[in-house]
User: What shape does this take?
Amino acid sequence: MYTRYAHLNHVYVKVGDRVLVGQKIGTNGTANGQWYAHTHRDHPRRFPTLANGQKNWNFYCIGWSKQKVQEWFADPRKYPKALGKGFDHLGLGWLQYWDYASNSNRIPFARAKAPCFHPGLDENGKGAGNADYDAPVYCVKSGTVIHTYTGRGSNGKWGRMIVVQEDDENVKSNKKDMTQPLITELRTTLKHLLGVDFGAKLSEGEQKNIARMLTEKIDALNGKIAVVTRERDKVSEQADALERALKNAQKKDETQSLHISLSECQKLNRSLSDEIASLTAKLKHMQRTQKEQGITPEQAVALITAKDWRRAGWTLVNFAMAATVAYLSYLATDQNVAIAAAVLPVAQTLAQYVTKKVNR
Assistant: This one.
């Protein structure tokens, strides 16, 4: 038999740990933001095996009959509540019908798209919504931790999870000589943890004192683990925020470079358009003059000054030179748009300087 605790916020145990009834093993959560805060607890009799040989820790019972659910899961109501004294009410109860597709119980099983007879208990503390978020979750049956999920993903809608293989109460040893080593080991452990040698036999008062002292030690350790876990989560969130900010900054720089490049191209385009418009206007004027006064086309073209032709030609040359240098920079830097955009205005300025020297 197994106990599965799901939708947790914090997990305080790891695979291989022995856990005892009443031990704090985690805190109530939202399955990493997928549900309102609650702890899903069920007790599978076994776990199905996947094609790769691994256990399917996330299996569920969508579409199963009520009889099949009872064959695979034990009644969770015979166990203590995982929220302990903090328990207030249930969400979905044992074998309660629910259709996850419509998020209601109004559609009959035969017509529902995701019908389910709930295999466990959804435990809630006091208040509605996430009022019970991060409330302590306690072990309801002693055993050994065989699986945990502590990541920040959806984990198939389960979120953070603990699976405990429950102790088998029917297994008893017939060898009396095995009890003494266990007692000696217990005495040594208690002396190490509490600093007190309780002797071979313990009175009822001493047993209660041991239980109280162990509980205090466990609570103090759980408190330290909770603080460290919260600090770890904060650091992780800060790292994620810095990474997002860095990506946004890089995108902003690239966008700004593209805007600069576009602005320079538009400026050159306007300059060329002005030159072409000026020449076109003069040409049209010459054509009208030709028509009115009988001037030959050769004479009309000659009226456009050599200076105008030279200015338009060098403007085209400047732009061609600058664009060529920018494109070579783009290829030389593994197609880096930002560098090419930065080179373009510099290349244009140098081209203008060179053409001025040539004209002189």
Summary: The longest strand covers residues 2-11.
